[in-house]
Amino acid sequence: MTGAQHAGDLHTGSAAEASHADGGPVVVAIDGPAGSGKSSVSRAVARALGFAYLDTGASYRALSWDLLDRGIDPAHPDAVLGALDDFDFRIGTDPDDYFVRVGTTDVTDAIREPRVTGVVSLVARIPEVRRWLNERFRGIMSSTPFAGIVAEGRDITTVVAPDAPVRILLTASEEARMGRRSQELTSESAAAVGEALRSRDKADSRVVDFMNAADGVTTVDSTELDFDQTVAAVVQVVHTQTARTSHGG
Ligand code: DC
Q1: Is the CB of 36 under 6 A from ligand 1?
Q2: What value does the mean pLDDT take over residues 220-240?
Q3: Would you state the pLDDT for residue 4?
């Protein structure tokens, strides 16, 4: 089992060195439902702050892709767990060099295909899979050479990094989320996109609650905000929360 590695390995820089001297990278944990703009916002926030970016959903997707590629039924937990031993994935954490690989295959685009999206909730509901991936996520977060890392998913604020100094729930109304998602996937009708989004959120939210902010988690509602305004709002929360933490509050 080789587990996740990350592309930030070779990154060096004064901000990173300063941060590490201060006791480790700053973790910014961001959760939210599908279509909340989480991935693109998190990546832009990472870029703005000079931080790494970790897309945890991409790892669940990469595992799903690998299962389909190997002809393993994602609905059978025992078969999925057996496949973890040979699951060799690599995810880029430099926001300017994002990629996902399984073995030597670049699956950055393939993991977004509907056939993968259609089975990823089955894979994500297996507790042992979550534990296995969470260990990799924590390893990537603690070893990043960047000054900090923006990690996004569904359970980062609650399970993966509940002690992160910055924890944000990024939400948007269902209508806004569907509108954004159907703009991304122009080949599908808005109704089909809406239905797929709703049913995936329903399945996923049985496993972890990403619709309600846990204690100490700041909600950023992007319904009325455009992309740049959402990024600015999240960056503002990061500044406020890190200032509070460094003053012992
Ligand atoms: O964010 P996304 O759509 O790429 O996530 C893909 C799937 O992975 C989604 O159906 C929920 C699941 N997921 C999860 O259960 N926990 C995470 N931390 C991230 C994603």
Answers
A1: no
A2: 96
A3: 47
Domain assignments of the chain as residue spans, ordered by start: 3-246
Cα of 223 to ligand 1 centre, how many Å? 21
Pocket lining: 204 vs ligand 1, CB cutoff 6 Å: yes
Q: How far is the CA of 154 from the centre of ligand 1 (A)?
A: 6
Helix axes 174-184, 190-205, angle to 10 degrees: 120
Residue, of 240 and 15, whose pLDDT is higher? 240
- What is the pTM (predicted TM-score) of this model? 0.88
Record: fold of 3-246 = Rossmann fold (3.40.50)
Looking at the predicted structure, is the pLDDT value of residue 247 above 70? no
Residue 77 has pLDDT above 90, yes or no: yes
